[in-house]
Amino acid sequence: MNIFETRTMLAAIREGFGARSFLRDRYFSNVRTFDTARIDIDIVKGKRRLAPFVHPKIGGKTVERAGFRTDSYEAPEVSPDMVTTAEDMLNRSPGEHIYGARSPQERAAEQLGRDLLELDEMITRREEAMAAEALFTGKITIVGEGYDEELHYWPSDPAERPYIELVGDAVWSNSASTPTLDLRHARRDITKTGATPTDVIMGTDALDAFLARLEAQKMALDYRRVDMGHIDPQHLPNGVTYWGYLKDSALDVYTYDEWYIDDEGVEKPMVPGNLVLVGSPQVATTMAYGVVSLMRGSGDNAAPEFYGERRVPDSWTQRKNPAGRIVQIKSKPLPIINQIDGFRVIKVLA
To answer: Each residue of 145-204: pLDDT tens digit?
Structure first.
């Protein structure tokens, strides 16, 4: 068996490679793979309409279909690769017992697994950054080799966007601010669209200001939800902290301490420090994956193979720049917010 065959590596990836990512896993759990390069996205704005009264002698009344818009995007490709050199396969690994040396094939398989895991984690981190940008800014910025575009989910009219910017005395660092009232209003606005928010994800600065206001107002979060078994902090992903339950707005409060290094080399938080997200895992979203193609054969016999998968590994050898066996994973991820009114973003600090 050739361990570098795409289908062999694909089976290994399906068995569970990948780092956990809170925002992607919680708010984009509806995973769909497409067999096309372009993905049609339906963006829906909810309306709570009543059926019209119509006398039976008149018949019926035609109603307009609820408004939505359809955008078509080509899912951007990410395709990191790395070199597995001959030494990785033939030399004894660090810590390996000298009398228990394994075969070169066994060492190659182990090295391949480590390489695939590292590449998969890089893609997962990119997906998480895309999910965070979609949730907190209503867009996804795609800049790279052959890419320079933005995908927008929020309406172009600022008045219709699910975004609130607090100013003046309303910012949470001000003693006159009312954070719990702000959250209650945001929850009510979302509920009007047909969704039921359950979560608040706070940036670190927003949380500090929020807790300071609660302390000043002699209020407290209800931590009994933890003891009752509704939430077990031990089962939360790394970086996620549960802070308690707000009874007046029926919301669970979380922070997510995770960072990434952007394409310019700047370290940034997944959740901006001055923002708050109100939403629910039940909001209509999609984690979409476009079809990935790999060229097979050479010359006149070259032809593409298509894979409708979340991850598609590939491997080949080359003699220079650098020399060795190249291992690559391709993916075309696109987190989509179909129900844009199901979330609210609040800028609580300047």
So the answer is: 888 999 999 999 999 999 999 999 999 999 999 999 999 999 999 999 889 999 999 999
Alpha-carbon radius of gyration of the chain: 25
Q: State the pTM of this model.
A: 0.85
Helix H, strand E, coil C: the string for the chain is CCCCCHHHHHHHHHCCCCCCCHHHHHHCCCEEECCCCEEEEEEECCCCCCCCCCCCCCCCCCCCCCCEEEEEEECCCECCEEEECHHHHHCCCCCCCHHHCCCHHHHHHHHHHHHHHHHHHHHHHHHHHHHHHHHHHCEEEEEECCEEEEEECCCCCHHHCCEEECCHHHCCCCCCCCHHHHHHHHHHHHHHCCCCCCEEEECHHHHHHHHHHHHHCCCCCECHHHHCCCCCHHHCCCCEEEEEEECCCCEEEEEECCEEECCCCCEEECCCCCEEEEECCCCCEEEEECCEEEEECCHHHCEEEEECCCCEEEEEEECCCCCEEEEEEEECEEEEECEHHHCEEEECCC
Q: How many CB atoms lie within 10 A of CB 30?
A: 14
Residue predicted with more confidence, 79 or 222: 79
pLDDT for 126 beyond 90: yes
CA distance 137 to 255: 18
